[in-house]
Design goal:
The complex is a heterodimer. By secondary structure, chain A is an alpha+beta fold. Chain A contains 14 helices and 16 strands. Chain A folds into three domains: 205 residues, P-loop containing nucleotide triphosphate hydrolases (Rossmann fold); 137 residues; 239 residues, Helix Hairpins (Orthogonal Bundle), CATH 1.10.287. In chain A, the strands form five sheets. Chain A has a five-stranded antiparallel β-sheet with strand order 2-1-4-5-6, covered by helices on one side. In chain A, α6 packs antiparallel against α11. The model of chain A has no long low-confidence stretch (mean pLDDT 89). By secondary structure, chain B is an all-alpha fold. The longest helix of chain B is centred in the C-terminal third of the chain and has 20 residues. Classes of the chains: A alpha+beta, B mainly alpha.
């Protein structure tokens, strides 16, 4: 037989690769670490074991590295750069094609057998090896998983869910029966109580009728009270309306008055502004401009005149200086002449030399004449000086006057300028007049509206007042009627306690009736139970549930018996195969390896008849025992799939065992025409070789 | 044969046929409920 394995995008390898194997021989795939040996075996194992439905086997498949872990996106065998991988295994006219997708989904062409992973995948991560490695001797799972006991157990779980349901329904029925009994007793008690109350009411009614009491008086009184209350409420509302109207009227009048005052104020302001405007309009700006120009000119002339006067004054001052010198000279001359005169008189001479008179000789008469002339000359110069000083004084006065005039003219210019400027304010005043006129019109309109409103309110008030009067009359009338009824009620007071008593009893009767109705409802509720969508009477349900419980019990017993039988059968077969393999391998270390038929624990007896605990086996022995058990399991439960796969398992065995085991594998490959594929770590590139 | 015995045999027979055909748990749960409901219907009416 030949097997062809086509892989596409598996593991690190992108693209297609084809591997061919022969049955009846052991084939080794050799290569370096991480050269991709394991992915070939894992792909083969996956194609032969899918679909995996058992949670236990899925756990094992994840541990081996062929199934997607819960937190993984997709299968660990899919190349990380590709979205799909394909495994296509063909042998003996059988095709097992598996597509692994990036979204975690997988598609299989022909279902395999999930037990392949437990039995035919020899690896250190197999469940059997893990159990032995951890010293777990309980192998009950293998006889369950590998036999029909697994299916019987699944059914037992479903059937037991009905046992639980029936148990809870039984409890519900018991509780309902207790409640029903209690409720029925209470119902009877309440029914008796109601009967007594009704009898009492009947007797009281007879007695009340005998007093001829009008049973409607209270109602009449209440009706009248309600009517009076309604009328008073209405009257209060109308009073409120009247009050509101009066307040509104007061507000409206206040607004009208305010508006009137404001209108009057505005009109006064408008008149004032109009007068201002008129005054300004009368201002002649052309004349003002001419006046200003004339005043400027006059000021210019005055300034010029002052300059000239000042210049003249300067000249006059210079003349004064000259006159002062002249007068001084004359006075000096006079002094000299007088001295000469005195000298002439004292000397009694005719003549004296007078230096003043050009070194000439002067006699007394000449001297006197000279003195007289000089005195006259001095007197004239002083007169002239006096005149010039008077002239300067006058000029200064004129300058002062001119300056005053200039200042006065400047003031006048400013006044006329201001007057001219005021003329420009006419537009502003006009705007103010228009603004005020606009506001006044609005105020006038508002005033008209308020006056209309005021008229409307005034028109309503009489109707409100009339209503109030009419209501007062009605209230008085109703109060009289009520007083009459009240008198009548007082007369009938004697029968009142009986009426009150009857009312109380009637109320009580209602309460008891409600309680009776509640009990009847509860009894009705607890008389049935709901079971699988059916509403069943409690008594009938009790019998049905008892019968069903018997059925479920019998089915469960049948299942338990079959589970036991299946397990025992599987264990016996398993033990037989282990014994056979041990004999064929001719192991010197172990006398017996078997499952205990009571508890399915794995017992290992060495050749010296000592019991071998699992956890004290050597590493190599653990691999040997687990491989032996797996091959036994394959012989027992998984013969229909002609493959055994060993991933790096042989090298883990002791040297002595390795050869024996390899030879055994060759033998069973040949005997059974199986494909046995092993991996081995070497220093070579990835190759395949039959050994 | 009582209804009870008939139901027991019916369920056991169904258990065997389900296992022989490859157990489908969902289908089994549904079918078992149908059988019990049918039994209840007959008992009630």
């Amino acid at each position: 037989m030949k097997a062809k394995l086509r892989l596409e995008n598996i593991g690190q390898r992108i693209g297609e690769e084809i591997w061919e194997f022969n049955s009846g021989v052991v084939t080794e795939i050799r290569g370096r670490t991480a050269s991709g040996k394991s992915r070939i075996l894992k792909s083969c194992a996956l194609a032969l074991s899918l679909p995996i439905t058992s949670e236990e086997i899925m756990e094992n498949a994840i541990s081996i590295g062929i199934a997607k872990a819960e937190n993984s996106e997709c299968s660990p065998l899919l190349n990380s750069n590709k979205n799909q991988a394909v495994i296509d295994l063909q042998f003996d006219d059988i095709t097992k094609k598996v597509e692994l997708n990036r979204d975690g989904t997988e598609k299989i062409s022909t279902p395999g057998n999930q037990n392949f992973l437990y039995c035919s995948m020899l690896t250190e991560n197999s469940k059997i090896h893990n159990n032995i490695d951890q010293g777990i001797s309980d192998f009950s799972w293998i006889v369950t998983e590998m036999s029909l006991a697994k299916d019987y157990e699944a059914i037992q779980e479903i059937v037991e869910s009905y046992s639980d349901l029936l148990k809870s329904k039984k409890e519900e029925i018991e509780n309902n029966e207790i409640d029903n009994k209690t409720n029925k007793a209470l119902l009877e008690k309440k029914s008796k109580e109601l009967e007594d109350i009704n009898k009492e009411i009947e007797e009281l009614t007879k007695e009340i009728e005998a007093t001829k009491l009008d049973p409607l008086l209270d109602q009449k009184y209440d009706n009248l009270t309600n009517q009076i209350k309604a009328l008073k409420d209405k009257q209060n509302k109308d009073k409120k309306k009247l009050k509101e109207s009066e307040n509104e009227l007061s507000n409206v009048e206040s607004i009208i008055n305010t508006n009137n005052e404001q209108i009057e104020k505005n009109l006064k302001e408008i008149n004032k502004l109009k007068i201002q405007k008129k005054d300004l309009e009368e201002i002649d700006t052309a004349t003002l401009t001419k006046d200003i120009e004339a005043l400027f000119k006059e000021n210019g002339d005055l300034g010029e005149s002052n300059t000239k006067i000042s210049e003249s004054n300067v000249k006059l001052s210079e003349s004064i200086g000259r006159l002062d010198v002249k007068i001084e000279t004359i006075e000096d001359d006079l002094k000299e002449l007088n001295n000469n005169l005195n000298r002439l008189i004292e000397s009694k001479k005719d003549k004296v030399i007078c230096w003043t008179c050009n070194n000439g000789y002067l006699n007394l008469s000449d001297l006197k004449k000279k003195i007289e002339t000089k005195e006259k000359e001095g007197s004239n110069s002083k007169e002239e000086l006096k005149d010039i000083e008077g002239s300067i004084k006058n000029s200064r006065k004129e300058i002062d006057n001119n300056k005053k005039k200039i200042e006065s003219n400047k003031l006048e210019i400013r006044n006329r300028q201001e007057l001219k400027n005021k003329k420009n304010e006419i537009d502003d005043i006009e705007k103010k007049i228009q603004n005020l006129s606009g506001k006044t019109v609005i105020l006038q309109n508002e005033k008209d509206n308020q006056e209309r409103k005021s008229k409307e309110i005034i028109a309503k008030v009489p109707s409100y007042k009339a209503n109030l009067q009419s209501q007062t009359k009605k209230i008085e009338q109703k109060e009289k009627e009520r007083d009459l009824v009240d008198n009548q009620i007082k007369k009938n007071k004697e029968a009142e306690p009986k009426v009150i008593e009857r009312k109380k009893l009637t109320k009580k009767s209602g309460r008891v009736e409600k309680e009776i109705s509640d009990f009847e409802f509860k009894i009705d509720q607890t008389s049935n139970i709901e079971f699988l969508g059916f509403k069943i009477d409690v008594l009938k349900a009790k019998m049905i549930i008892e019968d069903l419980d018997d059925t479920i019990y019998n089915v469960n017993e049948y299942l338990i018996s079959n589970i036991k039988e299946q397990r025992e059968g599987a264990a016996l077969k398993f033990n037989e195969n282990i014994e056979k393999i041990i004999k064929e391998l001719n192991f010197s270390e172990f006398k017996e390896i078997s499952l205990d038929l009571e508890n399915y624990n794995l017992n290992i007896i060495r050749t010296d008849n000592t019991y071998q605990p699992l956890n004290s086996l050597s590493g190599g022995e653990k691999v040997v025992v687990s491989s032996l058990l797996q091959i036994s399991a394959k012989e027992t439960y998984n013969r229909e799939i002609p493959f055994i796969i060993g991933d790096d398992i042989i090298l883990k065995m002791d040297d002595a065992c390795r050869e024996v085991f390899e030879n055994y594998l060759k033998t069973i490959a040949k005997e059974n025409d199986w494909f046995i594929i092993l991996t081995r770590i070497t220093d070579e590139d990835l190759i395949k070789e039959e050994i | 044969m009582s209804q009870n015995k008939k139901l027991t045999d019916d369920i056991i027979e169904y258990v065997e046929s389900s296992i022989n055909e490859g157990l489908d748990k969902t289908e089994f749960i549904k079918e078992l409920r149908d059988k019990i409901e049918m039994y209840l219907k007959e008992k009630i009416t």
